[in-house]
Amino acid sequence: MKIAVLVSGGVDSAVVVHRLVAEGHDLHLFYIRIGMDNGEGDCSAEEDIEMCQLIARKYGLPLQVVSLHEEYWDYVMDYALKTVKAGLTPHPDMMCNKMIKFGFFEQRWGKDFDKTATGHYASIKERDGRLYLATAADPVKDQTDFLAAISYDQLSHLLFPLGDLPKSEVRRIASEAGLPNASRKDSQGICFLGKINYNDFIRRHLGERPGPVVEIETGRKIGGHKGYWFHTIGQRKGLGLSGGPWYVVRKNVRDNVVYVGNGYGTGKQYGRTIHLQEMHWISADPFEEDSLGMRCGDGIRIAFKNRHSPQFIQADMVPVPGGGYVIESESDVQGIAPGQYAVVYTPDTALCLGSGMISSEPPRQRKHKKANSENLSICDTDSM
User: pTM here?
Assistant: First the structure.
């Protein structure tokens, strides 16, 4: 099979190359290069490319460095900055996968190959003749939540050769194969821009706007901040407040106020109801067909995540009359941040079904809040 492999210079994509070569496939390696927004190069990118060249030479494979610089800044970072400025919490990694790695790359280069392979920790499984995005064997490294916005066509062209391996096994394979990056640290941070300081990046684009930090229980000003866009719901670190722990529980964008609650048990940082404006279903809409056996009353039983974490939360999900969805969690959910995405899974957490952006309330429910919230039919958990 003729396969395009997206390599990053890290150990994961290197082991992908090693495994696919062992299977006898015809590989062509690609490195997607993204520069900084000021047009300057990135020293870490040069190191990454050098590592990719070593892998290519080791296996005698072609390596092509391609640029999607303008597309990245126009579609991923523009979205992220607009979302932050609106007081919401963006998910640039999810958008990066959808628009850059599996969007523009596929349109320009990936389309010429049978498949495109990456080092993501995820799997693809078939159920009744249909492909589904599936969770990885390593629950800590699982990255399906970063992939939950891709389309079915994109999924159908992908390979995730590491989906059946724990990270420790990936390291072991790399070491035994003598890969030059076997012990290289994993990258952290924003997609393609992992080594930048996030606050410095936001400051350069949005500047500073000093305002008060207010204790939500008392209304008392207890500190200051340099702009609400530096803070997100659920944040604990970087607040500069004594007598904590303090958590960001609300933001007033108009008045530039950040509200915080004190203590691990403050109820203001938890909730059980999550509103979604809409849902992106990757393979099938479980409300339209129940091939996975999730239906219960007017809704479906699901597991979900609202942040990158190994933990799944069990819940019921129902459609809202007039548009949108409501997730009712069985347990308290910390840091429900509008703008972030709720990623929906089957109750057994085996399949990732899609994602929806979290909002304060579904737009059409705001005018009819009482009627709709009382009429939603939630599944009885004892019936499952």
Answer: 0.88
151 domain residue, yes or no = yes
Q: What is the DSSP letter of 293?
A: S
Closest CA to 245 of 224, 259, 261: 261
Domain that holds residue 218: 208-260
Q: Are strands 325-334 and 341-345 parallel, antiparallel or unpaired?
A: unpaired
- Band (189; pLDDT cuts 50, 70, 90): low
Residues designated as active site: 96, 191
3-state DSSP assignment of residue 71: helix
Give strand pairing partners of 271: 333
SS3 (DSSP) at 329: strand
Query: Do 18 and 112 belong to one domain?
Result: yes
Q: Which two tokens stand for residue 320?
A: 């809202």
Strand-pair partners of 214: 221, 259
Is residue 198 situated within a structural domain? no
Query: What gap in Å lies between CA 92 and CA 100, rounded to an integer?
Result: 11
The CA distance from 354 to 370, in Å, is 28
Could you tell me if 249 and 299 lie in one domain? no
